[in-house]
Amino acid sequence: MERISEIPFDSDRKLMTTIHKVGNKYRIITKGAPDVLLSKCIKIYQNGETKMIGLAEKEVVLNRNSNMADKALRVLGVAYQEVENLPNQINIETIEKDLIFVRTNAE
What we know:
alpha+beta, Calcium-transporting ATPase, cytoplasmic domain N, 7-stranded mixed β-sheet, 3 helices
């Protein structure tokens, strides 16, 4: 995927975002601290399905994050969104929102 823009990692917000051209659309991919990333997500992708994210799903992710962090593992979450058009201004307020959190079944 051709990267057309990015919002660099910032230790205060604990996230980084890249924007890619995919066909006639744009894919926004954000990675970073799972607890921060979850606050930017409205949906979750798992087991091949995308659905609205609820408190139960968020709690599972946060518990898994905590368990891995307790083992001294560095944990990153990934979320994305596909849009047909980009906003006039690319910044954290216009891009890092309404994301889909990607959850795997790996421990």
